[in-house]
Design goal:
alpha+beta
C-alpha cells in the first residue's frame, strides 16, 4: 500500500502533526529533514517556496523600466524557486517523485494563502498525484487527529485554488505594470524615481491621504453652548440647552441640537434664564446592551491596538503563536464572527476546561445556568466562510508571556461574554424648562451587569453615567448657575491602526457599528490575514508614517495621489473598486465566479494604467503657485514632478534619491544654496543614507556627504588650518566639526581607518558642540529630551554615554519607583541611529553614484531592530 506525502506550511506544524498522529521517525537528508511512518511521509514548506517570475526572467527585453516594454501580460505565468529556501523545495520534489508516495495531503494553513503555497509547489514540481486537503481550525492533538479522519478531496478546493492564483497574478499584473508605468513617467527627464503601487496598497493609502487632506483643509467653526446647574430639593444636577425641533441640515453637517452659531443668541439665552425657576419632567426607560460578537482577526487587531497599543502585524504574530505553538486559540486568520451550528458540545467542553482563576467562575456559571444555546447570533453556518470565529481551545494556557496572556484574555473574555445575558440599564432623560427654554440631562445607570461583569469595573464605568439626584414630577427647581461655553468644531481624527483597519474592512468607510461593519466586511480591502502586511508595506515604502499610535501620510504619498488623479487612473486610488475585486475573489472561492472573467477585468485595468501613464502630457496639468521666487525673481511653481520657475529657467526635481523635497526645503535650498543634513535618501540598492543638498553654479542639485570633509557652509574643510575640537578616544587623531557630524580626521576619505563619528542629529535630537565635548571628556551628556523612536515614533529622553572603546549608547533616567535606570544598549558601531554619516564623497545627483560603504543610518536601523530601542 502506498504512502501519502503530507506537506505542512511550517516545520513547527509538521512537528505537531507527527506528535498527534504518532509512529513517525525523523529522517535527515543533507541539510534538510522530514518525518516518516508506516502510512505517511511528512515534511513542510517554510512559508512560500515558490514565486512568480519577474519580467526580466520571462524576457530580457521586458526587464527594462520603460514604456516600450509595457504592458507586460504573460500568456502563462511562470514560477521559480525562492533562492533562500531552494533546498527545502528540492527535498519536497524528491519526496513527491518517490514511487511509494501515491498521494499528497495539503496540510498548509486552511485558507487562500495556504492553498497558494501548496499549489505552486505542486505545479513547479509537475506532480500529478491525487491530492487531499487537511482543514484545521485548531492545532490541538485531538483536532489534528480528527482532521485526518475527515480529509477533503482536493477537487473540493479547486475554487479556492483559483481565487488564490488570481489574487497572486492580479497583484503581479497591477503591481509590476503600475509601478513600472508610473516610474517610467516620473523618470522621463533623467534619474530614477521608483513609484511603487499595488492593487490593495494604493487604495489603502488613498484612504489615509484623503483623511489627512480633510484635516489639513479643515476650517473650524465657532459655536456656543449654554450649560446650567439646577438646584432641586434633593440636590443639584447639570443641564444643557438644546433645540427640541432640531432637524438634520444637509447644508450644515456640523449642526447639532445643542449648538448655537452666534454668541449673541447664546448670551441672550443666558440672560433670559439666569436665576429663574424651572419645571422638571423626566422619562425613565429600561435599556439592554448585548455583548459584542466574537472576534475575527480584524476586530482583534483593532481592539488590541486600542487597548494594548499593538500594531496589527504584532497582534497577528501573537495570535498565530497562540494558535500554532501554545495551541490555545483557534485559527486566527479568519473573517468570520460566528461558530458552526454543530459546535455546541465543543463550546461546553472548552468552558469546562477553563482553569484560569479569574475566568473559571464565569465559565462555570455559563454551564450551570445552561446559557450555551443554539442562537443564530453565535451559532450560524451562514455567517461562516472557510473558518469560524477566534475562540479559546480546550488546551490550558500555560507558559504564556505577558503580552500573549493579554491577547489570550481578550479572546477568552469575548468568548465568555457572548453566552452571558445582556447588560441592563436604566436610562433617564430629564427636561428642565426655564422660561420655556429646554435643558436636557441624561443619566444611564447600570442595573444588571450581565456580560459586563466579565470585564470588571473599568468596562462598566465606560457605560455608566453619573447618577442623577431624584426629582419629583413637575418639581420646581432653581437655576443656580448658568454659563456660555465658546467651542469650535474639530477636524476628523487622524487614523490609528485600529481605525485604519476598520476603514479597510469597510472599503474606505470608517464604520464603528459592530453589526454594520460585519455586513460590509465582504467588500473590504484585502483580507484579515493581509491587512497588517499592507499597512506595514506602506510604512516600509515611506508612504505612511507612525507618530505614536497615529498613522499619517507622507509628502511622498500626497505626491503619488496627485499623480494618479492627474493621470486619471481612478481604480488605483479607489478603495470601493478594490473592495469589489476582493468581493469577487470571495465569490470565486465559493464557485460563483469564473477565474477567466475576473482576470479579464484585471488585464483591462492593467492596459488602461499603462496607456494613461504613457499618453499623459504633464503640460495639461495646472501648476500650483508656491509663494516664493527663483533667484532670477521669477515666481516658483509646483508641477507633478518639479519645482520650477514659471519661465522654465530653473527646475528642481521634487524627488531626489527616493526622498521628496518639500516646498519649504526647496525654498531654503534656493535661498541658502545648501541645506542639510537631510535624512531619508535611499541608494539604488535601497539603503538609507543622509546627506546635504547644494545648488552648484549651474543650479543643479548635488549631494554633499560627510566623508568628504565639508564645513557647515559647504566649503571644504582644511585639516591643516582649522582648529580641532578634541582628541579621538579611539585612535588619538584630531576631531573636527564638519557640516553633519563631529568626526575624527581618520574617518575621512575612501579608506577610513577610524570609526569615531558623532552625528549632529541622532534620532531627530540635535547634538551640539557643548554636548559632544561633555561626551568626549566626561563620557556622558546631559539628559537630552528630543529623541524620537524609529519604531514607535514617540519621543523619549536619554543620556548619551561613551564606553572606553569609543562606542556610544543610550542611558535612561532613573525610574520614579527608585529602581535603577533601564540598561543602556550598545551598537556595533560608533553611535545611535541617524548619526549623520554618509555613504560617498560629494556627488551630483545626476551621476547615479553608488555609496562605497554602508551608511551609519542603515547600520543604526539594523541595530535598532536588534536592541529593542526605547
Amino acid at each position: 500500500m502506498g504512502k501519502a506525502l503530507i506537506i505542512a506550511e511550517k516545520p513547527s506544524v509538521a512537528g505537531d502533526i507527527a506528535k498527534a498522529l504518532g509512529g513517525f521517525k525523523k529522517v535527515t537528508d543533507g541539510k534538510e529533514a522530514y518525518y516518516e511512518s508506516k502510512d505517511y511521509v511528512l515534511s513542510s514548506a517554510v512559508g512560500h517556496l515558490v514565486e512568480l517570475c519577474l519580467p526580466a526572467e520571462l524576457d530580457k527585453k521586458k526587464g527594462k523600466w520603460s514604456f516600450a516594454s509595457l504592458p507586460i501580460i504573460p500568456e502563462e505565468f511562470s514560477l521559480k524557486p525562492i533562492e533562500r529556501t531552494q533546498t527545502r523545495l528540492t527535498l519536497l520534489k524528491k519526496l513527491m517523485k518517490r514511487e511509494d508516495v501515491t498521494s499528497l495531503t495539503n496540510a498548509c494553513d486552511a485558507g487562500r494563502e495556504g492553498e497558494l503555497i501548496f499549489r505552486y509547489i505542486v505545479k513547479l514540481a509537475k506532480c500529478k498525484k491525487p491530492i487531499e486537503r487537511l482543514w484545521l481550525q485548531s492545532m490541538t492533538p485531538t483536532a489534528i487527529r480528527d482532521g485526518f479522519t475527515h480529509l477533503r478531496p482536493g477537487v473540493e478546493l479547486e475554487s479556492l485554488a483559483s481565487a488564490a492564483v488570481c489574487r497572486s497574478e492580479s497583484d503581479w499584473l497591477v503591481g509590476i505594470n503600475g509601478t513600472r508605468a508610473l516610474t517610467a513617467f516620473n523618470s522621463r527627464n533623467g534619474g530614477f524615481q521608483l513609484t511603487p503601487v499595488g492593487r490593495v496598497q494604493t487604495p489603502t493609502l488613498a484612504i489615509v491621504v484623503e483623511r489627512d487632506l480633510k484635516i489639513k483643509s479643515f476650517d473650524p467653526k465657532s459655536y456656543w453652548e449654554v450649560h446650567a446647574i439646577f438646584g432641586a430639593k434633593a440636590g443639584t444636577y447639570p443641564g444643557r440647552w438644546f433645540k427640541e425641533d432640531f432637524a438634520k441640515d444637509e447644508a450644515n453637517l456640523d449642526a447639532k441640537p445643542e449648538r448655537l452659531w452666534t454668541e449673541e443668541a447664546a448670551r441672550a439665552l443666558e440672560e433670559k434664564c439666569r436665576g429663574k425657576d424651572g419645571i422638571v419632567t423626566e422619562e425613565k426607560k429600561p435599556a439592554t446592551q448585548l455583548s459584542p460578537p466574537l472576534y475575527d482577526l480584524t476586530t482583534l487587531q483593532r481592539e488590541a491596538n486600542g487597548r494594548l497599543g499593538l500594531s496589527a502585524k504584532r497582534t497577528l504574530q501573537i495570535a498565530q503563536r497562540l494558535y500554532e505553538h501554545h495551541k490555545v486559540l483557534t485559527y486566527p486568520r479568519t473573517d468570520s464572527r460566528a461558530l458552526p451550528e454543530d459546535y455546541i458540545d465543543t463550546v461546553k467542553q472548552i468552558l469546562g476546561n477553563m482553569r484560569d482563576n479569574h475566568l473559571r467562575p464565569f465559565a462555570t456559571e455559563i454551564l450551570q445556568r445552561g446559557w450555551v444555546k443554539p442562537t443564530k447570533r453565535v451559532f450560524n453556518n451562514a455567517k461562516i466562510s472557510d473558518h469560524f470565529a477566534i475562540t479559546p481551545t480546550i488546551e490550558t494556557p500555560d507558559k504564556l508571556d505577558e503580552i500573549e496572556r493579554k491577547v489570550y484574555d481578550m479572546v477568552a473574555k469575548r468568548f465568555l461574554a457572548v453566552f452571558f445575558p445582556a447588560a441592563e440599564f436604566e436610562v433617564t432623560t430629564r427636561i428642565t424648562r426655564v422660561e420655556e427654554e429646554p435643558f436636557r440631562t441624561d443619566g444611564k445607570i447600570l442595573v444588571v451587569p450581565g456580560w459586563l461583569a466579565i470585564y470588571g469595573r473599568e468596562e462598566q464605568d465606560a457605560d455608566d453615567q453619573a447618577s442623577l439626584v431624584p426629582v419629583q414630577e413637575n418639581e420646581s427647581v432653581k437655576t443656580n448657575e448658568i454659563e456660555v461655553k465658546a467651542l469650535e468644531t474639530r477636524p476628523p481624527a487622524k487614523f490609528t491602526e485600529a481605525t485604519l483597519l476598520s476603514a479597510m474592512e469597510g472599503a474606505g468607510k470608517l464604520v464603528e457599528d459592530e453589526e454594520l461593519r460585519e455586513a460590509m466586511a465582504a467588500k473590504g480591502l484585502g483580507t484579515p490575514a493581509t491587512r497588517a502586511a499592507t499597512i506595514e508595506g506602506l510604512l516600509a515604502e515611506e508612504y505612511l508614517r507612525r507618530e505614536g499610535r497615529e498613522i499619517t501620510s507622507t509628502p511622498k504619498a500626497m505626491a503619488l495621489m496627485e499623480l494618479l488623479h492627474a493621470v486619471d487612473i481612478p481604480a488605483l486610488a479607489s478603495p470601493e473598486m478594490t473592495g469589489e475585486w476582493e468581493y469577487k475573489l470571495k465569490q470565486m472561492e465559493r464557485g460563483e465566479l469564473a477565474r477567466s472573467r475576473f482576470m479579464e477585468e484585471i488585464i483591462g485595468l492593467t492596459q488602461k494604467i499603462v496607456e494613461k501613464a504613457k499618453n499623459f502630457e504633464e503640460s495639461n496639468f495646472e501648476p500650483k503657485q508656491l509663494g516664493f521666487n527663483a533667484p532670477n525673481g521669477k515666481p516658483m511653481v509646483e508641477t507633478l514632478r518639479h519645482y520650477q520657475a514659471n519661465d522654465g529657467t530653473l527646475q528642481l526635481r521634487k524627488v531626489v534619491a527616493g526622498r521628496l523635497l518639500e516646498p519649504f526645503e526647496a525654498k531654503e535650498l534656493l535661498e541658502k544654496r545648501l541645506i542639510g543634513p537631510l535624512q531619508g535618501f535611499r541608494s539604488r540598492l535601497g539603503r538609507p543614507f543622509a546627506a546635504a543638498l547644494k545648488l552648484n553654479d549651474a543650479n543643479e542639485t548635488e549631494f554633499v556627504f560627510d566623508n568628504a570633509p565639508i564645513n557647515a557652509d559647504g566649503t571644504k574643510l582644511d585639516l591643516d588650518t582649522q582648529e580641532p575640537i578634541a582628541k579621538c578616544p579611539i585612535c588619538g587623531g584630531r576631531i573636527f566639526e564638519t557640516m553633519m557630524s563631529f568626526a575624527c580626521e581618520n574617518t575621512f576619505g575612501d579608506a577610513p581607518t577610524c570609526k569615531m563619528k558623532i552625528g549632529k542629529k541622532i534620532l531627530l535630537q540635535d547634538i551640539d558642540r557643548t554636548q559632544v565635548m561633555k561626551l568626549l571628556t566626561e563620557k556622558k551628556t546631559d539628559l537630552l529630551r528630543g529623541f524620537v523612536s524609529q519604531r514607535t515614533r514617540r519621543k523619549f529622553s536619554a543620556y548619551l554615554v561613551m564606553a572606553a572603546d569609543g562606542r556610544t549608547s543610550f542611558e535612561f533616567e532613573p525610574r520614579k519607583d527608585g529602581a535603577p535606570p533601564r540598561k543602556s544598549f550598545f551598537r556595533k558601531k560608533e553611535a545611535p541611529a541617524e548619526n549623520g554619516a554618509a555613504p560617498a564623497a560629494e556627488t551630483k545627483t545626476k551621476t547615479k553614484a553608488k555609496p562605497k560603504s554602508k551608511t551609519k543610518a542603515a547600520s543604526a536601523s539594523r541595530a535598532a531592530k536588534k536592541k529593542k530601542e526605547a
